[in-house]
Amino acid sequence: MADDLSAVAHFLYEAGTLKNTRRTGWWMAGVRDPESVAEHSWRTSLIASVIAKLEGADPARAALLAVWHDTQEARTGDVNHLGKKYSGSADPRQVTTDQTAGMPDVLASAVREVVAEYEDKESPEAICARDADKLECMLQGLEYKAQGYQGAQRWIDNSRGRITTETGQRLAEELLSHDPLDWLRSTLGETGS
Known about the structure:
The chain has 193 residues and is mostly helical. Helix 9 packs antiparallel against helix 10. The longest helix is centred in the C-terminal third of the chain and has 23 residues, at 124-146. The chain is built from twelve helices and no strands.
């Protein structure tokens, strides 16, 4: 391959920092060790593929948009909504442009296109990926609440109210009707909760 992959190698190390970058909003709910941005992005990608498939969109594309949706936070950190009120927010497109500088053009343009599509909020896949982002936050809030973090209710309600697709709304209602360990009880054939 003629293209220098040095910038790609640097980005892959940079992306790895997201495994240690905590989602800071959860600290306000009292969560001592909140999920990382990487953990959030992983489950968001799964949810995006589910929503997209059920909505008739491309599940692989929706998952791709979701997996890249917070990569900029390797540079900006996870700035929660309160923090954005005071610090503003970096344009994800510009951060991505900086992150992909020096990469082979075919790769850099593809990554920039993915981030732009997510940020434009227009394609069916972007809509599904954005719903997945909200649904994952709601789901994480339900899990934290089950662990005793009652302050997570604010995130559950806020996220629930921002879901727009029919599938996302139906899935949210289903999640709200279950305990986070119902899947295990069902798998083990246990009855009752």
